[in-house]
Automatic annotation (TrEMBL):
Record carries keyword Hydrolase: yes
EC id: 3.1.2.4
Keyword Cytoplasm found: no
Organism per entry: Leucobacter manosquensis
Matches recorded under PANTHER family: 3-HYDROXYISOBUTYRYL-COA HYDROLASE, MITOCHONDRIAL, 3-HYDROXYISOBUTYRYL-COA HYDROLASE-RELATED
Chain segments carrying region Disordered: 362-381
Residue ranges of every copy of the Enoyl-CoA hydratase/isomerase domain listed in the record: 27-354
Gene3D superfamilies reported in the protein's UniProt record: 2-enoyl-CoA Hydratase, Chain A, domain 1 (3.90.226.10)
Protein name: 3-hydroxyisobutyryl-CoA hydrolase
Pfam families: ECH_2
Amino acid sequence: MSAAPQSHPFDSDETPLVLVRREGAITHLTLNRPRAINALNSDMFARLAAAVSAAQHDGSQAILLDGAGDRGFCGGGDVKELSQGSARTILANEYRLDYAISTSATPVVGIMDGITMGGGIGLTGHAAIRVVTERSRLAMPEARIGIVPDVGGHLLLAAAPERLGEMLAVSAGDMAAGDAIALGFADVFVPAERLPQLQAALAAGADPQAAVDGVAEPASASAILDARDWWSPIAASVFGAQEPPASEDPTGAALRLIRALEASDDADAGRLAAVVRAMSPTSVAVTLAQLDRTRRRALALADVLADDLRTLGRLAALPDFAEGVRAQVIDKDRNPRWSPARIEDLDDAVLARILDPEAHADEQPLDLEVRRPRSADAGRG
């Protein structure tokens, strides 16, 4: 989930929110809420899930997944719907769709052209072939609205080199195309002007990987990797083996991180500290704990999505989520009043309830039909 512009009058039965069509050898799915940067809602999850299911049996050789409009593939989930509806039901449907895409026997080619955040990464970040362009801007910005990266995002973030996933998660940092490839969120760079050529090759029946390789170019170098010069020593001191794991002591990990950033002489560390201070303190501690749990236990995507449902369902019921939506989406004053307001004031008991790996009495587990991952992406869980 992430905070994208929300509902508009044109969202109606006359304007399908997902365009589904058979084009030659492929099923072509297009998110179709361009004025809302294709923000995902329950209707879209249902339409996409049905189309992905149908493509397993109708002879489609690939599924092409893209977004309408010139602003981006997907700005995330419809957080207004999430904040006003049954959060756990909405999230469960979203996560089942993400898992179906990740295990689809018909390879999914995800086009992350332009803004791709939160739920957009859930759709494409676990797909068979993940394409970025020079216009791509990827992010998991959930800490800005009082929740944490979900849709399996902790799996991707945990695999990023030298704990750069932690840096991105606690800062809602964004990635350009080269960053996304270097950090494991994407596979290949294709110039935007060649996307029609790629679509035509897929529709003509070309092997999906060969079709992508035929239009791909090397991506620009990753600027985020340069941050390792100052970030890696801080990460080693905060998260190293000499300290309690973040999954066991989330408050301690969050405190060590903010103190290390604020004590650093590096200007970039100081800027990151200011950004982290603006995030929900609860979100910062919870995402650090979930990243550690995902990495330490070598969780697969199905396990991470099950964690996401428990954790997000609990966070969505807390005041910070409603306050984050108010500040970022409704009033747009960008001045959330978090509870607690500071990392120093976090309550260990509250965090323990959020992070409890056992389902509570009123929580239904995520019912996924666990399947063996495709050999091409087995390493992604």
